[in-house]
Task: structure prediction
Amino acid sequence: MNSYPNSTWKVKPGGSVDTTGPSDIHIYRDNNILDAHDFPELIEDYLMELEIRNYSPNTIRTYRSIINCFHRFLQGEVPENHEIFILKSFKRYIRYLKRDKKVSQNYIYLVTVVIKKFFEFGEIGGLEDVKTPKRSKSLPKSLNEVEVKKLIHTIDESKDDSNHKKAFKHRNKLILTLLYSTGLRVSELVTLETDSVDLDERTIRIRGKGEKDRIVLFDENTRLLLKDYLSKSSMEGDYLFVNRSGNHLTPRYIQMMIKEYAEAAGIRKKVTPHILRHSFATHLLKNGVDIRAIQQLLGHSNLSTTQIYTSVDMQTLKTVYDRAKLL
Result:
């Protein structure tokens, strides 16, 4: 007689199931839960599914890293033959990330979401009742207008520069100017195609997240930089910005480039492509642009994502406050 009446069981691949436990716990009689599942193959199947569903390469890389890290952690645990092992190990993993790795609350949120989705895909129980933690909400960091100008003008050409160096500086200056004046994501910028640029209309057609198209605008100064760059470019291919091999630049290359120019400009803040995107949105809002227009330019699906920019920076707040002359 079973010690747990009214039990229902689902046979898992790689081992038979013992009916000596409650219905919400799967017990593996012949081997432990890690041996019962081919995790490396399951991970590849899941990532292939994400690719088919048009997840971006960056997202897939992030998912792969998170799942592989948890799998390695599981392999270091003493395996057990029921799915409570998964739950206990997951809790220990989260504690390890918080205590030892000192990761952010937002990363804990991402890990929880990714791991739960993966186990749901693999029909592995144990994490169904794990609640997704809240994300911390912090104001986006941004540069002020003076800092943006300092950053961009750090790349101004010198009369002593060689023709090659002038072309190199011109390209990099255009990259920084585009990131700021259009609010592009760095992943969108590096895959930008030449024929998506309309110099006459001062627009660029962008294929953004979720395969959604949008139109972004750029100003006259950016148009002149673009026009000059295109007239002198000798590179063949679809992409606007390419390396010596003719391949498009990588987000990592852009990140390192911006970091170097920020240090050269004497900017002590951390400067990244995403901070230039934040700066673009913050400065538009500060100059009276409607938040729904900003939402469209940024390519946000939900207005709530854009509303984080409604927090006015402290200098603007002080100016408005002093102008009010309360006393």
About this structure: The beta strands are 17-18, 27-28, 197-198, 203-207, 213-217. Residues 47 and 62 are 10 Å apart (CA to CA). The mean pLDDT is 82. Residues 17-121 form a domain with the DNA polymerase; domain 1 fold (CATH 1.10.150).
